[in-house]
Specification:
This protein is α+β, with helices and mostly antiparallel strands. The chain has eight helices and eleven strands. A four-stranded mixed beta sheet has the order 9-1-11-10, covered by helices on one side.
Length: 270
């Protein structure tokens, strides 16, 4: 008899062996079901459907794809958007923590471009002397909610993820504060929260979206420099904005496919 052969053919195995097998499976089944449930719960947590993340009743993330349009020619640099964002999302009031901020571009006659953002523009901007200046304008900035986000790719624990409706979010319970996503973001739109030590960024005020509201920065803008809506819906304000203007995105060479769209953006903006 070969050492790899069973001493008895399968049909000749004692009935006691089948009985023992059935008893073992019967005892193991409840444990397997518990393990399966735990695994499924873990997958649903890391997969993060938009509705689960925001507890919006009746909200279906797959029915939406959000984006934001920005018209720099309308921005007056008042800083109300940055202030509203901090209030709405409990962003630290220190001058270097922002989910959204405003930059002022000063194009001088000698060809030099000076970019400033004092305290993120939250308190407005000091006046500039007109001599030697060709033009000035303001550019609001925020997370670009990329369709191909590098921050998601580098996160080692899956804390940064994309929702079905096109918003990139951070799960604070998973985030380990490694800063990989902060370094990977080409737009400088992330920071490490000083209290929670987890990554923070603009979420389009996701808790408002699932309730049918627009982001706080859009709501308070006095000149409608920010336009929010659905990317694929023809009746959306964003779709009309994109149809009526020449649209650019920031750093298109990065191939991140941003969903923040700028109208008639000056070539000096970076």
């Amino acid at each position: 008899m070969s050492e790899h052969e069973s001493p008895l053919p399968l049909a000749s195995q004692p009935e006691d062996a089948d009985t023992d097998r059935r008893a073992f499976l019967k005892k193991s089944l409840p444990v397997c079901l518990v393990l399966l449930t735990v695994l499924q719960d873990g997958q649903s947590d890391t997969g993060k459907t938009a509705g689960d993340a925001a507890k919006g009743e009746g909200y279906k993330a797959a029915d939406h794809l959000y984006g934001m349009g920005i018209n720099p020619s309308r921005c007056i640099g008042c800083g109300r958007c940055a202030d509203a964002c901090k209030t709405e999302n409990d962003v630290p009031r220190e001058p270097y923590y922002f989910r959204t901020w405003i930059e002022r571009y000063v194009i001088q006659t000698d060809g030099e471009t000076v970019v400033s953002s004092p305290e993120g523009g939250i308190a407005g901007f000091p006046p500039v002397q007109e001599k030697g200046i060709l033009r000035t304008f303001f550019v609001p900035k925020l997370c670009n909610q990329c369709a191909s986000p590098p921050c998601v790719q580098v996160c080692p624990v899956g804390a940064t993820f994309s929702t079905q409706d096109g918003v990139v979010l951070v799960d604070k319970d998973y985030c380990i504060g490694c800063r990989y996503c902060i370094q990977a973001c080409p737009y400088g739109a992330r920071f490490l929260h000083p209290q929670t030590h987890t990554a923070e960024k603009c979420t389009f005020c996701y808790h408002r979206l699932v309730q049918g509201l627009v982001p706080a920065c859009v709501e308070v803008c006095p000149t409608q420099a920010r336009i929010f809506g659905e990317v694929r819906r023809r009746s959306s304000p964003l779709t009309r904005f994109m149809r009526m203007n020449e649209i650019q995105t920031l750093k298109p060479h990065m191939n991140t496919e941003p969903k923040v769209y700028y109208a008639n953006l000056d070539g000096e903006v970076r």
